[in-house]
Write a structure and sequence with these properties.
Blueprint lengths: L2 H23 L16 H5 L4 E5 L9 H6 L3 H14 L6 H13 L7 E5 L21 H18 L3 E4 L6 H7 L4 E6 L3 E6 L2 E6 L9 H15 L11
Parallel strand pairs: 1-2, 1-3, 3-6
Antiparallel strand pairs: 4-5, 5-6
Helix pairs in contact: 1-6, 6-7
């Protein structure tokens, strides 16, 4: 699979989906962020294990939704913002640090080879909420747009391994994205291992969660997934 071919399919989907969603989202232009759109890397497509790391939503992303819709080059702008994130360091972001650790474990340290995604495609800015921009409870318009988009992205990009760093409070979105599931093991609210349409899947805490078990859960994910894909990896991966 060539990056340009895959990206063309993805871009066509984004154009149509955003156009169809515009009337419903218009009333929220001032409070939602621009959408989180993927720019596919050849490194991901060529990886021996295709890994998708899915968070909740961004925390400020490429301006407001209203301004985004006004741009004729809106899709390119969104993809450029996504690509720019790969060039940045991880800083103090626990999510970006986990992204880097998955790259170290499964992709030779190349973050571009691990597809970063989010369950909600836009974040919700409410000044009185301070830092938090959680958006799962925002509206049916946002929820339905996001679920359909993530479903399409998964079907097109065919990950072998998906890690949901979204916490259990986003499980209704996860279940809508992957309605067919076979549970392997559950540690209530902490770590859920399941399979969906041949994809090895894990859901655990958001990397920034204040829980003493966060690091342990992510270590278990890497150890379990490394063992599951050991024949594809050049050597056993570890932290």
């Amino acid at each position: 699979m060539l990056k340009d071919d895959v990206q063309a399919v993805l871009d066509t989907y984004y154009v149509g989906a955003l156009a169809a969603a515009k009337s419903g989202l218009a009333q929220h232009f001032h409070e939602l962020s621009a959408p989180f759109l993927l720019s596919v890397s050849q490194a991901y497509l060529d990886a021996p294990v295709r890994v998708m790391f899915i968070g909740k939503e961004t925390n400020g992303w490429c301006g407001k939704l209203g301004a985004f819709y006004e741009r004729p080059d809106r899709i390119d702008i969104a993809k450029a913002r996504y690509e720019n994130q790969h060039a940045r360091g991880t800083g103090n972001s626990e999510l970006l640090r986990r992204w880097k650790r998955f790259a170290d474990a499964f992709a030779g340290g190349d973050r571009a080879a691990v597809c970063w995604n989010n369950l909600m495609k836009m974040d919700w800015h409410r000044p009185k909420r301070g830092y938090s921009r959680t958006s799962i409870g925002h509206s049916d318009h946002l929820f339905d747009f996001s679920i359909a988009a993530v479903k399409f992205e998964i079907e097109l990009l065919k990950p072998d391994l998906i890690i949901f760093g979204s916490g259990h409070t986003y499980d209704r979105a996860l279940k809508a994205v992957l309605p067919e599931r076979q549970t392997v093991k559950v540690e209530p609210k902490a770590l859920w291992h399941f399979r969906s349409n041949g994809i090895e899947c894990f859901r655990t805490f958001h990397p920034g969660a204040r829980d003493k078990h966060v690091k342990e859960c992510y270590r278990k994910i890497i150890d379990t997934a490394s063992n599951a894909f050991r024949e594809r990896l050049p050597q056993k991966a570890s932290l």
